[in-house]
Amino acid sequence: MEPSIQPDLRLDVNLRSAGYEEKKDTIRNVRFQVHSGELVGLIGPNGAGKSTTIKSILGLLRHRDGEVAFGGPTGRYAYVPEHPVVYEYLTLWEHLRLAAAAFGMEEAAFAAKAEALLERFRLSEARHELPAKFSKGMQQKLMLVTGFMLEPDLYIVDEPFIGLDPRATKDLLDFLEAERRRGAGILMSTHVLDTAEKICDGFVLIDGGSVVAQGTLPDVRQTAGLADSSLFDCFLALT
User: Fold this and answer.
1) Distance CA 10, CA 70 (A)
2) Domain tally for the chain?
3) What is the pLDDT of residues 153-163, one digit of tens each?
4) Any domain includes 2
5) 1 lies in some domain
6) pTM of the predicted model as reported, rounded to 2 decimal places
7) Residue 169, in any domain of the structure
8) What whole-number distance in Å separates Cα of residue 204 and Cα of residue 44?
9) Average per-residue pLDDT in the chain?
10) Tell me, what CATH number does 126's domain have?
C-alpha cells in the first residue's frame, strides 16, 4: 500500500466492495479520508458494515475490491480493537515491551514512554500483573497505552469507550487531543454519539453497507434534513 502523495493525508479509503465470501458484498462504495490532526467518527447501527470497513482497511479480508493508502512521515498506524487481545502468560510490562520490540523502539525511549503512560492511566501498580486476569476496562486501557506508546501517524480505534470509567474516558479524550495536535489522524468507530458529536471533526455514517452521510456535523444535518439537530437525531433519521 503506497502512502498518499498529499502531505497532510493520513488515510485514504476507496472500497468499491468488500465481504467475507466471494461475490457476497457486505459493504459497497465506502470512500473517505482522514487528514493530519483530524478525528473522524465512523458510526452506524449494529450490522451496518463498520467492522467490515475496519477489517478491509487493515487488509484482513480476502474479498476486497478497492484501495487503501496510509500517509504521514512513517505511514505507520496503530489499531486498538474493541475486544482486547492479551497473552495469558505475559505481564502488563511484557506486553508493552513486546510491542516496542516489534516496532524497533530503543529501550530508553520505550521505558520513559511506557512509564508516563502507565502513570497517566493509573496502571503503574499493575505493571507486573497478568492482564489476562484484568477487568475489561483495565484490558482496554492496556490496548490504548500500547497504541499511544508507538506514536503512529494514524490511529484506528474501535469502540474505545466500552468498559472505561469516567476518569479513564477523560484520560483517553485528553490523549486523543494531544495526538491530534502532534499531527496524528484518528478514525474512531463508536456508538457513544453524544461524545462523538463533541470531539469529532467529521463523520462517516454507514447503514446497510454503504455511506449514507459524511462530512462535518452541518453536512450530516443537511443530508438528514434536520437543521440544528443532534448527531443522535440525524443517526435515527438516516438509519
Assistant:
1) 6
2) 1
3) 999 999 988 88
4) no
5) no
6) 0.91
7) yes
8) 8
9) 92
10) 3.40.50.300
- Taking only the tens place, the pLDDT of each residue in 215-237 is 999 999 999 999 999 999 999 99
Residues 89, 130 contacting (CB under 8 angstroms): yes
If DSSP states are collapsed to H, E and C, what string results for the chain? CCCCCCCCEEEEEEEEEEECECCECCEEEEEEEEECCCEEEEECCCCCCHHHHHHHHCCCCCEEEEEEEECCCCCCEEEECCCCCCCCCCCHHHHHHHHHHHCCCCHHHHHHHHHHHHHHCCCHHHCCCCHHHCCHHHHHHHHHHHHHHHCCCEEEEECCCCCCCHHHHHHHHHHHHHHHHHCCEEEEECCCHHHHHHHCCEEEEEECCEEEEEECHHHHHHHHCCCCCCHHHHHHHHC
Q: Domain range spanning residue 117?
A: 9-238
Domain-embedded: residue 71: yes
